[in-house]
Amino acid sequence: MTALTPWTMAPVASGPWTVAPEPPDSPDARALWTAYYTEVSDRWFRLHRGSDTPPGELARGIAADDGPEQLVAPRGLLLVARLAGRASGMAGLALLEPGTAEVRRVFVHPSARGRRGGSALMAAVDAAAGALGAARLVLDTRHDLVESHRLYERHGFTRTEAYNEGPYAERWYTKRLASAAG
After folding, report:
1. Mind listing the pLDDT tens digit for each residue in 69-115?
2. Is the residue at 57 inside a domain?
3. What is the pTM of this model?
4. Three-state DSSP class for 159?
5. Domain containing 72: what range?
6. Which residues form the signal peptide (predicted)?
7. What is the CATH number of the domain that holds 94?
């Protein structure tokens, strides 16, 4: 019998959502990545500069982002959430060290928000992290992404000390997985 790994896990169903691993270079994953990057960049530019991200800056930022390359087996994966078959959300998971995985790029497309897609993604992240052998999850976010703070806290994450020095990391969270807490 083949062992279940996060890369071979069956889609996780949660209400109208299904979440499954997908290559980060698939057309749907790339479209979600671009939507994610555009939104967080525009929010930063509006907050700090009073305008959306200049188009050239946005294109350069997306091209320079090495995030997708870190979300491939054997040290990471990208989960894509589908609502009625349409790719509408994503979350990345990267193994930092044995037993610890980092949650990255949690995003639900604006057209699908308010339908529990974030919760579906977080449940799938927990399942994938457990299959990866992680006992603890960590993540970082920005102060202005208040919706993400509420999502993470609702799903058992607690504030912690900084574990990295990312240029946009302003708030850090950790979570012990239930299967590892016993």
Report:
1. 788 888 889 999 999 999 999 999 999 999 999 999 999 999 999 99
2. no
3. 0.90
4. strand
5. 12-24+67-181
6. none
7. 3.40.630.30
| Nearest-5° Cα angle at 104, 99 to 108 | 135
- C-alpha distances in Å from residue 152, one per residue of 59, 155, 160, 174: 29, 5, 12, 9
| Distant-in-sequence, close-in-space partners of 53: CB < 8 Å, separation ≥ 6 | 38, 41, 42, 44, 45, 61
* CA 145/CA 40 separation, integer angstroms: 8
> What b-and-e string marks burial along 32-45, b requiring 16 or more CB atoms within 10 Å of the CB?
bbebbbeebbeeeb
Q: What's the length of the chain?
A: 182
Alpha carbons 182 and 179: distance in angstroms, whole number = 7
Give the pLDDT confidence of 52-76 residue by residue, as tens digits: 999 888 888 877 776 777 888 888 8
